[in-house]
Amino acid sequence: MAYDPNLNVNRPDLQTPPPREPRNSWAPLAVIAAAAVAGVVIWSMMSGPATDPATTSSTTATPPAATDTAPAITPMEPATPAAPSTNGTAPAAPAPSNP
Question: What integer pLDDT is reported at residue 60 of this predicted model?
Answer without folding.
Answer: 53
